[in-house]
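dumping this here so i dont lose it
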């Protein structure tokens, strides 16, 4: 055999052997109607047969352990390349279907042909039909700070892990990994920081659906990395806004980092989305979120004096009022505060049958920039503690009439602030 061909064969074989489809950054997410669970994972190379295997008993990925009582289910996935001049890797996605309520599942993600798999993971469903309602944890602005790499503060995630049996999902309202990197006038992303973060959240994200929306620290590469990593249930891959139903509650997550001015693509989508829901469900719970708050009162640019904030409020607040949005969640300012029902700066009612949206700001994930400690004079809409530490909220929709809201701070790991909200119609 000629030496040249021999070398080619050796190269070809080593290339095959070197295919690395080891899953990392494994995350669950809710889907549009909340009964199927999406799972995404990253791989260095691009596989031909990404797949999720799952079942109600523990098993091995060769599937020889399948049995009649607890068969191994599987669904093929899809893979999207993330590779550009600045990034390398692939995002894989598959969906676990035919799940039942209040059931524990074991699962693997991997590539069938290459026989490379994640460790065996597990998660439990809670009730996903509307009679069960739901409870989720929410925070924004975390990065590595929420887990103690930049600092010794791993309270947000560890306190959520402790409560996982009591939660349906986690919502991270933007400023996810703090992987952005400004060079001159351009914003790049740091793949190391992004992937370390995905590893850090795995104890939570492999056990509970991890829902996100984009923040200003997630916008690098036109949000391409953000969107393909998390694959939220948007109508189109290039849209950073989406909605879903879960246990009788309608959720709408939009992007404060895209054009939101009246009659932009996103604005039209948002209005149409809220209108359609309210026509179908005049009395249902409607929860909206994005990264940036409409109401906040720290001594910090966005809250204090921002032209962009004025445009944001002028463009979008009337939609919250018009379509009876019960709760609005956000972060961005690194603090916790909550409003009374408020519209156009005016307080409208109380937590009992409120006459306007209630705003909860939880930019308290624990990011490396530290908390916003200085406050403006308390505005009329401000109610309850204004807190500059770290922590997260839990929102418990108890039934069609009642929501219980708690804020859990990192020091006490108990609810330092609680309110009960009854359904309002406006
Ligand atoms: C889910 O159920 C449908 C209908 O019973 C069946 O056709 C499908 O194969 C099931 N999917 C899996 C992954 O078992
Ligand atoms: C499920 O996974 C967790 C780690 O996320 C582990 O501690 C637990 O033992 C697993 N449960 C079972 C039943 O294997
Ligand atoms: C919190 O930090 C400690 C010490 O660094 C570490 O042992 C532990 O695993 C961390 N917990 C989580 C949930 O990351
Ligand atoms: C990306 O982050 C890693 C880990 O923090 C750091 O070592 C590296 O220098 C960063 N890359 C750039 C280009 O800043
Ligand atoms: C959610 O439910 C509402 C009505 O209750 C319906 O209009 C909508 O199409 C459903 N699905 C999504 C993804 O919003
Ligand atoms: C809780 O967070 C605050 C503010 O970030 C910090 O000063 C404090 O050290 C944290 N608590 C503990 C026990 O580390
Ligand atoms: Fe932010």
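and the seq i came up w/
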């Amino acid at each position: 055999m000629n030496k040249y061909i021999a070398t080619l064969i050796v190269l070809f074989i080593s290339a095959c052997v070197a295919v690395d489809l080891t899953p990392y950054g494994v995350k669950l997410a809710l889907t549009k109607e909340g009964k199927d669970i999406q799972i995404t994972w990253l791989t260095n190379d691009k596989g031909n047969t990404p797949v999720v295997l799952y079942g109600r008993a523990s098993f091995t990925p060769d599937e020889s352990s399948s049995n009649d009582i607890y068969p191994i289910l599987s669904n093929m996935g899809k893979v999207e390349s993330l590779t550009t001049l600045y990034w390398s890797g692939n995002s894989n996605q598959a969906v676990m279907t035919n799940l039942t309520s209040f059931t524990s599942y074991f699962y693997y993600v991997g590539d069938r042909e290459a026989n490379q798999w994640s460790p065996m993971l597990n998660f439990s469903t809670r009730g996903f039909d509307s009679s069960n309602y739901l409870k989720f944890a929410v925070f924004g602005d975390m990065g590595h700070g929420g887990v103690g790499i930049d600092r010794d503060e791993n309270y947000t995630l560890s306190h959520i892990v402790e409560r996982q049996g009591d939660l349906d999902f986690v919502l991270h309202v933007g400023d996810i990994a703090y992987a952005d990197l400004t060079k001159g006038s351009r914003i790049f992303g740091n793949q190391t920081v992004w992937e370390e973060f995905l590893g850090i959240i795995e104890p939570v994200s492999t056990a509970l659906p991890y829902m996100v929306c984009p923040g200003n620290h997630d916008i690098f590469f036109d949000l391409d990395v953000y969107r393909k990593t998390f694959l939220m249930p948007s109508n189109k891959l290039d849209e950073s806004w989406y909605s879903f139903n879960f246990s009788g509650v309608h959720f709408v997550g939009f992007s404060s980092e895209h054009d939101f001015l009246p009659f932009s693509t996103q604005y039209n989508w948002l209005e149409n989305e809220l209108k359609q829901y309210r026509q179908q469900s005049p009395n249902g719970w409607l929860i909206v979120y994005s990264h940036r708050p409409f109401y906040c009162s720290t001594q910090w640019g966005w809250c204090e004096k921002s032209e962009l904030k004025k445009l944001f409020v002028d463009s979008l607040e009337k939609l919250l009022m018009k379509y009876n949005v019960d709760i609005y969640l956000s972060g961005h300012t690194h603090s916790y505060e909550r409003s009374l029902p408020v519209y156009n700066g005016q307080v409208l009612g109380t937590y009992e049958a409120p006459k306007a949206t209630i705003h909860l700001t939880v930019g308290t994930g624990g990011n490396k920039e530290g908390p916003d400690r200085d406050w403006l004079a308390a505005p009329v809409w401000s109610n309850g503690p204004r807190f500059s530490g770290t922590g997260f909220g839990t929102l418990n929709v108890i039934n069609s009439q009642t929501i219980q809201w708690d804020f859990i701070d990192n020091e006490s790991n108990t609810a330092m602030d609680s309110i009960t909200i009854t359904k309002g119609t406006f």
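The two ends are 82 Å apart (CA to CA).
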